[in-house]
Amino acid sequence: MGSPEFTVRKALASDVPHIQRLIRPYVERRILLGKDDVALYASIQQFRIAVGPDGTPIGCGALNVFWDDIAEVRTLALDEAWIRHGVGHRLLEGLEVDARALGIGRIFCLTFEVDFFTKHGYLEIGESVVSPEVYAELVRSTDEGVAEFLDLARVKPNTLGNTRMLKVLPDLS
Question: What is the pLDDT along the chain (173 residues), one digit of tens a residue?
């Protein structure tokens, strides 16, 4: 028997309660950082949503641009009943399409799911992957994801045990 059908689409503002539902178990287990509704509404255009055959959202993920050539995959979460059905793969693939459309060549993630991201071409990193000049600009950001990317001390309690990973997108031109 094959996997159940699902589709992946751009998120709608009305998806915010579903995103909260999807991320809640991961927030409770300290795998993802919680987000207020206002932050999700403000960033809804960054999200893709996977929808099951009955129209219910079953997964989500976002792409947050950091700089001219680097973005972060964040808030990638699935309904547990849909894990290992290709939903995470399709969401990540969609976010990578979005990155290419924006001219982004590198994607960062901070994750506990090292095997999943490794299978998709992400490699563990330790050092900074931006120039000192870009670092100086990024360090002024108030975004927690940027602080995690820069490995700033103020976010260390939230990132313990996570692995910093990066994928260089293949040039399709």
Answer: 455 799 999 999 999 999 999 999 999 988 888 899 999 999 999 999 999 999 999 999 999 998 888 899 999 999 999 999 999 999 999 999 999 999 999 998 988 899 999 999 999 987 667 665 665 665 666 666 665 665 655 554 455 568 888 899 987 65
Q: Is residue 2 part of a domain?
A: no
Q: Which pTM value belongs to this model?
A: 0.83
Range of the domain at 132: 7-168
CB 155 within 8 A of CB 148: yes
Residues 6+ apart with CB under 8 A from 94: 8, 48, 61
Structural domain includes residue 60: yes
Q: What is the CATH number of the domain that holds 28?
A: 3.40.630.30
